[in-house]
């Protein structure tokens, strides 16, 4: 297999950015979802996938400074997306949970992404699993996660 050129990698990154912009729910086709900043979306994604997580674990997983995480969490709580609950085993610890509002908003977002991608692919989803594996590998590499 011939080596991948730097030009192809640069074009690949450019396509990723264009696709990302086109599936952005706050772009041309605004959805009925709770609007989030990039940092809030990062935190919400983690909390949604890890209900009951702690703020410390969230900060570590998202690579956010505690002060930035605190601001994002306050905004998510104010928007009704995240609920802080005391840890049943240690009342000094807080656990973060997605709310029903978050579940609805995330459900709408996922439905939007599915429709958008199916339309863009003309219903032919061959190759999506391989593309997903590649993008997951890139994501892990960018975050320094061991493979």
TrEMBL record:
One GO MF term attached to the UniProt entry: DNA-binding transcription factor activity
InterPro entries associated with the record: HTH_MarR-typ, MarR/SlyA-like, WH-like_DNA-bd_sf, WH_DNA-bd_sf
HTH marR-type domain mapped to chain residues: 9-140
PROSITE patterns from the UniProt entry: HTH_MARR_2 (PS50995)
Origin superkingdom: Bacteria
Pfam entry (one): MarR_2
GO biological process, one term: response to stress
Keywords: DNA-binding
Protein's name in the database: DNA-binding MarR family transcriptional regulator
């Amino acid at each position: 297999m011939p080596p991948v050129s730097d030009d192809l990698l640069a074009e690949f990154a450019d396509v990723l950015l264009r696709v990302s912009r086109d599936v952005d729910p706050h772009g041309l086709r605004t959805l009925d979802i709770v609007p989030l900043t990039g940092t809030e979306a990062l935190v919400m994604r983690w909390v949604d996938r890890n209900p009951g997580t702690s703020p410390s674990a969230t900060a570590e997983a998202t690579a956010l400074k505690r002060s930035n995480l605190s601001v994002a969490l306050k905004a998510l709580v104010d928007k009704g997306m995240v609920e802080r609950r005391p840890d049943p085993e240690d009342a000094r610890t807080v656990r973060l949970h997605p709310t029903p509002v978050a579940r609805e908003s995330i459900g709408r977002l996922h439905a939007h992404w599915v429709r958008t991608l199916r339309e863009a692919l003309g219903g032919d989803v061959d190759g999506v699993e391989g593309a997903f594996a590649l993008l997951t590998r890139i994501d892990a590499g960018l975050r320094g996660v061991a493979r």
